[in-house]
Structure formats: structure tokens, C-alpha cells
Amino acid sequence: MSGALLVAGTTSDAGKSVVVAGLCRWLARKGVSVAPFKAQNMSLNSFVTRDGAEIGRAQVMQARAAGVEPEAAMNPVLLKPGSDRRSQVVVLGRPYAEAGALDYGDLVGSLRPLVLDALADLRRRFDVVVCEGAGSPAEINLRHRDLVNLGLARAADLPVIFVGDIDRGGVFAALHGTLALLSREDQALVSGFVINKFRGDPALLAPGLDQITGITGRPVLGVLPHLEGLWLDAEDSLDLDHGRGEPRAPLGTDVLRVAVPRLPRLSNVTDIDALAAEPGVVVRLVHHGAELADADLVVLPGTRATVSDLAWLRERGIADAVVAHARAGRPVLGICGGHQMLGRVIDDGVETHLRGVPGLGLLPARTAFRPEKTLARPVGEAFGERVEGYEIHHGIVEVDADGLGAAVEPFLDGCRAGAVLGTTWHGALENDGFRRAFLREVAAQAGRDGFVPAPDTSFAALREARLDALAAAVEAHLDTGAVLRLLESGATPGLPFVPPGAP
Length: 503
Fold this sequence. Notes:
By secondary structure, the protein is α/β, with parallel strands linked by helices. The protein contains 14 helices and 27 strands. It has a seven-stranded mixed sheet. It has a six-stranded parallel sheet with strand order 2-9-1-10-11-12, with helices on both faces. The protein has a four-stranded mixed sheet with strand order 3-6-7-8, with no helix packed on it.
């Protein structure tokens, strides 16, 4: 088998990433060599590959589903918003430019050949490449510079499947309307629909499935059920506030409550997912200082905009609540941008160009931003356990000389002062032994003597089980024969045009 297809969605958060992961795992279980691909990804949830390239976390999750090592070619363009109007442009895993929504269009001409070369490279090395679109392919104001939806499909001659989210309502209108806003040439590649997140009896949908096929000439290739607790590495900002499944029952008599400020530019939210997977640990994203009142642990997460998000913490009363929490001897963990916030002062010559910004003063450290981005895969030890992580940051945190002493101890690459810990390492909590040791420490500091860390939680195994569940859903609910035909033969010939077409 040799082929590729594009999974596009009628909206953001329609389930494209999940469908791509399910297809990758299903094909891998059939013995097919498969790789994921997303030409252009806008996300603050990223990862560092083994060779030091930064790519979107969703493509890392999809690579895991495919059973292959993630690499820069799987996500050649990554946009990391630093404000509502500007993003850092990461190309083939390295910072490339800072661009606004309008001037990004000037870069497309130079990026297009890089994107197509990356896809061609993957197609040479793998039997199948499953591509993911972004947002909606019917964003008619952006079609002229599209690198990731029908612009990619046309350039690489890819058959296209549209995914619609029935949980939002109006899925048939979304499928029909998306198709009808495309040009005749774009429509010729759209070969089928998938309805996602359905709850209930599929027989209720049967008349609608027949009608949408009759109206558009495209078959519905399947109806995927809503799968409870199937949270995977989030890409879209819409994903971040979704639940992380039902909390697992505690093994002891106490639970641990974890509060995580929902920063406007929160990045690498997957750092807290491993905590949410633990029995007896309840993780909440919070928006106001009052929500920290019953927290046992506060985690200040990563951010693409440290100084701006620190100001947001102060506006919401969260900064004062974090300081009060720490001074009461209760634990606080800062990760990357959160670590920078915990120090005494931040000199930001990269993002906001503000100097001498006061931090929360909970760690004797100073942060200086540098133009060069640190991308690394460090290994260390904490609480007597081996820790592997990854670093993505411009800010360099250094412990003040006058802060060294008996009260301050090293912690990974950062430091610890009492119950306050800081590190720039993402992914540390995915290490099972370290996570258990850390939770024992948190329980002791928080006075939760009845909390018992689970001895056998494997975060990696939980992820694998979710990917297997996705593959099972694909096999049970999609017309996999039709998918294979698209991969082998390309877009269905003779598909009808649905008016009015592109404006």
C-alpha cells in the first residue's frame, strides 16, 4: 500500500486530531508503516523530538499511535501565539520568525515548498501518511494562502475526508455548507464524511445520513461514538478547559486537590494530565484567586507570555492567593513560565521588552530572556527517582547568590525553597516513580495523611490504552474498506459539484 489522505474538519475541535490518531493506530495494528502529518499547526502545546526539534504535541501523540518516533517533518510549520495578533513561527523545529496575522501571508510563499518537501519525504519513507487539516477548510478569506487544508490537498493530490462534530449541533448543515463554499477543483477531492462524538442510537441518524449523501454525492464513511474519558494531548485552545475524565477513586481516605491557573497563554497543559490520571487526585483549571482556597497543591504551568500572564494572575487575585498558599507552608510547583513567575524579577528582552518586572518572590531566582530558544531533552534525578523531561524556553532562570543556603535546595534544573519548587522541565510528571514520590511529599506538606499514591499507575500505559480504544472505534464504526480504497486509489472520480462554490 502506498498513499496519503487528508482529514479536515468543519470546525476547530471537530476531532481531526483524534480521527488521525485512530487511523494511525488502526493502520499500524494492520502492519502498515504509517506517519502523521500536519503542515501548519497553531498550538501552545509542543514537544521536543530526540534531535532537538520543536513540534506540536498532537503530532507527537499521533506518532505514538503509529508506533514511530516523532520528527520535525510531521509538523513542518508550528505557530505559537504570544498575543492575540502575533505568533512565533517555528519551521522544521526551529524558530524562524515573529509574524502577525496579516504579515504571515508574506511568508507563505517561502513556506509552501518546505511543507510539500516534508510531506514528500514522509511519503517516500512510509507506506501511508495521514494528514490533518486545521480549523475549517471553508475559511474563504484565507484560501489563497492555505498550506494545510485544500491548498495542501490540491498541491499533493490528496483525497479528503471531512469530520463534523455532532455534539455541537447542526452537523449536516456544517458538512453541506463547508463543501458548498469550496471551488469546483477543491470539491473534487472531498470523498466522504465522518460524523464524530455521537451519543445515542445511530439508527436515529440514518435518514440524515442518506439525505446528506443524496444532496452532496458523498458517502458518510462512519459515525464515531462519543468516547468518555478519551482526553489526549490537547492542541486547540478549545480543548484545554474540557474535563480530563472522571477523577479516579482514592486508594486512601483523602484526596489531593490541585489548582492550575488557566493562563491566557497557557502552554504544555499536558504537564498536568499525568496528575489527573492518578487515583485520588482532582485537577482543576482556575480563573480567580478564591478558587485556590481548598487547594492542596498549586501548579503554575508554562506560558508563551510570562510577563503578560503574570499580570493576569495579579488582576485575578491569583498571585496573592499563591503567595498566601506558599507562606502557609502548602506546596507550589512552577513549570517553565510558572517557574519564572516564582522568582524575584524578570528581564524580558524578547516577548514584551519589559525589564525589572517583579515576580512573586517565592524563589531566590532571577529570569533573563534571551533571543536564542533552548530546546533540549534533559535527564536528571529528584526525590530519589530518575526524571526525563524536555525544555522549550527563552527565559534563563538563575538562583541568586544570596539565595543559596540551607533553606534552598536544588530541584532538577531549578531550586526548592520550603514547599515551593521550580523547574523549566516539561514532562517531568509523566515519570511514574517521580510523580508518586512528589505526590507523597505534597500530601505530607498539605496535611493529607490519608492520601495513598497508587503504586502501579503507568501514564504511558494509560495513553496506549486510549489509543487502542480509538483504533477499536475506527475499526468498528468506520467503513475501513472505503478508507483503504482512498489510500490506494486517491479521490473518488466523478464527484458532483455542489453549488454555489467558492465566492
